[in-house]
Amino acid sequence: KLFFTDYGNAAKVERCDMDGTNRTWIVDSKIEQPTALALDLVNKYVYWVDIYLDSVEVVDYQGRKRHTIIKGRQIRHLCGLAVFENYLYTVNSDNLNILQINRYNGTDVQSLARLDNAKEVRVYQKRTQTAVRSHACEGDPYGMPGGCSHICLLSSNYKARTCRCRTGFILGSDGRSCK
Fold this sequence. Notes:
Layout: E1 2-6, E2 12-16, E3 24-27, E4 34-40, E5 45-50, E6 55-60, E7 67-71, E8 78-84, E9 87-92, E10 97-102, E11 109-114, E12 151-154, E13 161-164
Antiparallel strand pairs: 1-2, 2-3, 4-5, 5-6, 6-7, 8-9, 9-10, 10-11, 12-13
């Protein structure tokens, strides 16, 4: 799945399959400018920052169990968001501080460091890099991913795929080759 935010005409948090199909709104009310998003892959939660409402909120992958982690002036102008163990990590774009927020107790906020020009934060940890089973976009005997001549995108599950073409090309009638 691909999770993303949109604050165009109607602000929302959405998910879809990697090929863009099965697009689903998971948050579409009481939301204004969702800018940063992070996933708890183990517990299947989606966290986001709303810079207009000065809040960090969470829902499960289906848009249920919504609640506010923290809200108010203390977390104004946040950009970037990452989750690791009991904490959320984010950047305050005003003072460029890296903040650590306890995701179970939003009153526990600590400034960890100041980094010039910081706009994003990522946590890399071996446990978040799950082992990959065989999937529909593996290379075929000719080295083409999923048998696609340009781009292979996973679809509704790891056994399904959609072929796409780079800009300037169109997908052939075979659904695999680009012309």
